[in-house]
Amino acid sequence: MSYDRQLERWTVHHRAGWLNPVFEGLSWIGGKGLVRLAIALVLAVWWRRPWLFAQVALADFRRSDCLVARLRRVHYPLDVLGGAVLGCLIAIALRWLSGALRRSRRARPAG
Asked: Which end of the chain is more exposed for a tag (fewer CB within 10 A), N or C?
């Protein structure tokens, strides 16, 4: 028997039953994209950038639209890892780009 199967069996036999509804609810919320929307709403209010929530909502709508179109329900570990790495690289690139734009605006001569 493989180690991941043993770990799964151990987890199933040693879990607290009263936590099942809690984690099922968290899984449902996470699967619907509501966590991302809640975080985006809080940050949009906190940072006073209402467009942030609109961008995240639009991206979440597009993501769910693509998932429905493909009808793919399985996430393999490397898919998740690849998506996380790609998301981090895009965030780093956008942050660098926004910093470069700010620096170029400051460096322009007046006139």
From this structure: C
The pTM (predicted TM-score) of the whole model is: 0.40
Q: What is the pLDDT of residues 29-49, one digit of tens each?
A: 777 667 778 888 888 899 888
- The answer to whether 44 and 50 have CB atoms below 8 angstroms apart is yes
Question: Cα(44)–Cα(53) distance, rounded to whole angstroms?
Answer: 6
Number of helices (H), then strands (E), in the chain? 5, 0
Write out the two tokens for 86: 């790609």
Q: Where are the domains of the chain?
A: 74-111
Q: For the chain, first and last CA: distance in Å?
A: 74
**Using an 8 Å Cβ cutoff, are 36 and 58 in contact?**
no
Q: Does residue 3 or residue 107 have the better pLDDT?
A: 3
